Amino acid sequence: MNIILTHDIDSIRKPIRHIWQRRNRYRTKDLILALMGLKNLYNNIEEIVSLEDKYGFRSTFFTPVFLFNIGEIIDILKDIKKQGWDVQLHYVYEPVQTLGLFRMQKLLFEQELGAVEGVRTHMLIINDTLLDMFQHEGIKYDSTLRTETAGTFDPYMIREKLIEIPIAIMDADLFGRMQLNEEQALKFILWKMRYAEQKGAKYFTILFHQESYTMKGGRIYEKIVKHLSTKNYSISLPKDVLNSKVV
Prior knowledge:
Blueprint: E1 2-8, H1 16-21, H2 28-35, H3 45-54, E2 60-63, H4 74-82, E3 86-91, H5 98-113, E4 118-121, H6 128-136, E5 141-142, H7 147-150, E6 156-159, E7 162-164, E8 169-170, H8 171-177, H9 182-198, E9 203-207, H10 221-229, E10 234-236, H11 238-242
């Protein structure tokens, strides 16, 4: 089975007041460093890259251009792209002038980071109109639908020229909607991977937000990566699907 590791970058910094109000999410050491201005708890891109690189893994970071000033992390993104990580567009949907604002986001992204092959919509907002728009605008794949919505773990043609790569696991579902603790969440993830294998799935896509990496819950991403390193899985990028025979 091919494992696709992905991260959405919803934010890269928060004010100290915000962090303090959520202090129970963090290890004491990390919280102290943040309060001293020595650590940014919401920008963990390089930490995640270091972890994945330790095991020879590569992942995709879906990056917005409307949620914050992308210039703050542009050098990091360009650097990890050179090292084999992928960076694609985290599209922020707006209901008014939707097409124009999508084109604006795509244009700004491509000015800095190259052609957009794939998108994932912020908040996982998706509908037929958006899928039609993605195809019309030359997007090759979307990765917004959950596997439960798609009815499959594997990539498939959702439009004539648009591939859907469903999300099997998302951290926000585990710790927000399902209210699992870390032990329960890890157990559920490993069970779902086995379930997917039993169903004959060829792909299994994981989404952990990069800003959650040092938080309670998000910290289990390190355990997931370590577990994957002990299994006979292939670690793939979404763009690898474009050249595969799976769809």
